[in-house]
Amino acid sequence: MFFILSKTLNYLVMPLTIISVLFLLAAFLPSARWKRRTFVAGLVVLLFFSNDFVANEVMRAWEIPTVAYTAMKPHDLGIVLTGATNSGLTPNDRVYFNRGADRVTHTVQLYKLGLLKKILISGGTGKLVGEEDPEADKFKAAMIMMGVDSADIMIENQTRNTWESAVAVKPMLDSMHYKAEDCLLITSAFHMRRSLACYQKAGVAIEPFTTDFYAQPRTYTPDVLIVPRYEAIGLWQKLIKEWVGLLAYKLAGHA
């Protein structure tokens, strides 16, 4: 039940959902006064969430910064969270990545630079219905193609979300005698706070390595400050999904 709620609840509070509801109310409410009020409210909400500067600033504050490779110490194990492939595309003789592919490419860089000895990929499928190959298997295939020795890759491919991943990975680390301080958690910058909370709750106080940044350098040009952009709404959708997910995990005692 928690898995289903965590996947569906966030859609109810997404900006596009709120904006659509307000405009629908403006169209169908019998009262002229409330028609006007809901229309104005919908317009204000739309302009706010489509402002690129505001969205970028909030994302900049939320994402955890990364560090230069030259400033890093070697780690025994890198734990890579999945969530960066597209499913259902054909032909199925290759891996289809979305923009989260940094999770894979930066992990391979860490490995080839000698900053990781081994890699553990965690993640099955997060689909509510239907079946597909586990994402961990897809990540592994891509990493091998990029030159990582298959003997240096381990997978956990049964979990459906970040909390399940943390719970499954903890006994694996214990059985292989890995200490948390010798491991590195690798995922997208927007997803790192929730991931760290889950792993720490599961008893793995791990160091983060963030990838796949959505925030851009701060600019003050008119197109950023004034012109509405649908990309800004996309940033808010991503942020709100994380916030709702983190709240749900905390309420459930998972973070």
CATH superfamily of the largest domain: HUPs
Mean pLDDT: 93
Largest sheet: 5 strands, parallel
- Beta percentage is 5-15%
Number of helices: 10
Q: Quote the CATH topology of the largest domain.
A: Rossmann fold
Count of the separate structural domains: 2
Determine Rg (CA atoms, Å): 21 Å
Number of strands: 5
Give the overall form: elongated
Low-confidence segments, given as residue ranges, are none
Structural class: alpha/beta
H/E topology pattern: HHHHEHEHEHEHEHH
Overview of the molecule:
The protein has helices at 2-8, 15-28, 32-49, 52-62, 102-112, 135-145, 162-175, 192-201, 222-225, 230-251; strands at 75-81, 116-122, 153-156, 183-188, 207-211. It is an alpha/beta fold and 255 residues long. Helix 8 links the parallel strand 4 and strand 5. The protein has two domains: 2-63 and 228-251, no CATH class; 69-211, 3-Layer(aba) Sandwich (Rossmann fold). The protein contains ten helices and five strands; from the N terminus they run ααααβαβαβαβαβαα. A five-stranded parallel β-sheet has the order 3-2-1-4-5, sandwiched between helices. The chain is 48% helix and 11% strand. The protein is elongated, with a radius of gyration of 21 Å. The two termini are 17 Å apart. The mean pLDDT is 93.
List keywords for this structure.
elongated; 255 residues; five-stranded parallel β-sheet; Rossmann fold; alpha/beta
